[in-house]
Amino acid sequence: MKIFLGVMFALLTLVACAAPTPRPLKVLAAETFLADIGQNVAGDRLQIEALLPLDADPHSFEPTPNDVRRVADCTVLIVNGAGFEEFLNRILANAGGNRQVIDASAGLTSRKPTANEILDADRPGDPHFWLDPSNVVKYVENIRDALAQVDPAGATTYKSNADAYIANLKQLDQAIAEQVKTVPAERRKIVTNHESFGYFADRYGFQIIGTIVPSVSTGAAPSAQQIARLIDQIRQSGTRVIFLEAGANPQLAKQIAQETGVRIVTNLYTHSLTAPNGVAPTYIEMMKHNVKTIVDALK
Questions:
Q1: Which domains does the chain have, with CATH numbers?
Q2: Of 31-35, 65-69, 85-89, 284-288, which range is least confident?
């Protein structure tokens, strides 16, 4: 009997030693703003890295072999979804393996363009949900639930962190609304370089007069007729400012400004955060910077 038990113990020991070690969670977020939102949910339990570097435009991003490797190595990938990451299918096809993909915008409904906005037949949905902080609450809930699924031991931590961050988002939403009230309603007219501020405009009572690039993607190019139409819209509406996102080519904006006399305001941050010493090191700071820039220009 002792010999039998000894053999069984030895066998169990060998099985235990041969059992695969659980793969540690390695979380990657597609964009820097998503990494920051996710980090607020993960807290100290996980470190979330961004796939895209600072200042990268997701619409025109060209992945490198190193990007494919990083996706291949991750166990969890957070994406905005809604067609925003046009580069992602190529990466996933080459990365192989299995990972949990968190679609942060899942459950949100794409807005409908207003009368002045041109519907992009190739990209009918607007993926820029995060420029309305009330939508980011859904992002946080989706990330919280998915992290708790892959890491049940951390569920309580994720819930506590998510609750605290959602409270901060609601405070941000209220603060933005109060700032916008300082701009007379008749001056809340904006022109941007592409279709990105729709959810922001809908939430805070701005009117989108038009966009230089009539698409939710910065990769599209406007026709001469579309530029002429935008110039007419600016003149007829009395719009005073064209807002450009950081990194946008200002050439067409300058041409329109010469024709209409409007002012160009640059350095809105939408697709990427800045370095820690910049004006938009976190999602919340990014929104605060954008709102101050817009409000100050329109007062």
A1: 27-175 (3.40.50.1980), 176-298 (3.40.50.1980)
A2: 85-89
